[in-house]
Amino acid sequence: QVQLQESGPGLVKVSQTLSLTCTVSGDSITTSYYAWSWIRQSPGKGLEWMGVIIYDGSTYYNASLKSRTSISRDTSKNQFSLQLSSVTPEDTAVYYCARDNPRLGHEYDYWGQGTQVTVSS
Question: I want to staple 101 with a disulfide (CB 3.0 to 4.6 A). Which of 2, 90, 105, 109 is the partner?
Fold first, then answer.
């Protein structure tokens, strides 16, 4: 059973950098051909894909967030991380990590439970 667990501060101040980590168990983040995404949901809005790190370490980002977003990984800990810089209150959201399964048409087959991040002044 694959499990994902987000961790990180629940409160970030305006203009600071939001940092979250997703710890994966039950599968390796280097297993071909899976991809590992960060997705968020702001209050009253739908899900927003932020970016992904592929099994080979390649990264891709939502164009609207690309200038502020960085995704990295630590294969020794089987973790991948999100950094979002220069945050504003509009970045307040529940942040999820999820596995993208190409064998299921790139559906997300496993999700973390989500972590609330609030940006305050």
Answer: 109
Proportion of the chain in helix, strand, coil states, percent, rounded to 5: 5, 55, 40
Contacts of 4 (CB under 8 A, 6+ apart): 22, 23, 24, 97, 98, 99, 110, 111, 112
Please state the φ and ψ torsions of residue 101, each to the nearest 5 degrees.
Answer: -105, 110
Instruction: Name beta bridge partners: 59.
Output: 53
**Interacting residues of 15 by C-beta distance below 8 A, sequence separation 6+:** 86, 87, 88
Question: pLDDT tens across 33-81, in order?
Answer: 999 999 999 988 999 999 999 999 999 999 999 999 999 999 999 999 9
74-107 tens-digit pLDDT: 999 999 999 999 999 999 999 999 999 988 888 9
- Give the angle 10-100-43 at the CA atoms, nearest 5°: 35
For 29, residues 6+ apart whose C-beta sits below 8 A from its C-beta are: 36, 53, 55, 73, 75, 78, 79, 80
